[in-house]
Design brief:
Elements lengths: L1 H20 L9 E8 L2 E3 L2 E5 L4 E7 L5 E6 L5 E7 L4 E6 L5 E6 L11 E7 L1
Parallel strand pairs: 1-4, 3-9
Antiparallel strand pairs: 1-2, 4-7, 5-6, 5-8, 8-9
Length: 124
């Protein structure tokens, strides 16, 4: 009986050890990326990231007009949008899944044409 108990105990320890090694890796917190909006610029104008990297855009509208931030993947699909009133702040979080040049623009009429653009270069 003692021999059976020992082997059961050993088996239980082995199973617990294997299960503990299967636990998921904790998520890294998103990298903060400050964005400043004014008439008519988005600063910084160029941002780099890796596929799968979690990004937290911390957006400050320092202008006198309402602006928004639209983040578009390389195919032109909008993946995130946030409107920000003057002297207000907001946050957008994304995790790019595709390598390539992403666009960050203000989609309010005339703002993109006036220069409210930035690029997000995502590498594999």
């Amino acid at each position: 009986m003692t021999r059976i108990w020992r082997s059961s105990w050993l088996t239980a320890l082995l199973v617990m050890g294997m299960l503990s090694s299967c636990s998921p890796k904790p998520l890294e917190p998103p990298r903060p990326v400050p964005l400043k909006l004014t008439e008519f610029t988005i600063t910084p104008g160029e941002i780099s990231a890796q596929v799968g990297e979690r990004l937290s855009f911390r957006i400050a509208n320092l202008g006198v007009l309402e602006h928004n931030v639209s983040i578009q993947d390389p195919s032109g699909e909008e993946v995130a949008l946030l409107s920000v009133l003057p002297n207000q702040h907001g946050t957008l979080q994304i995790e790019p899944s595709t390598a390539g040049e992403w666009k960050i623009i203000c989609t309010l009429p005339g703002h993109e044409m006036a220069g409210m653009t930035a690029s997000l270069s995502v590498s594999p």
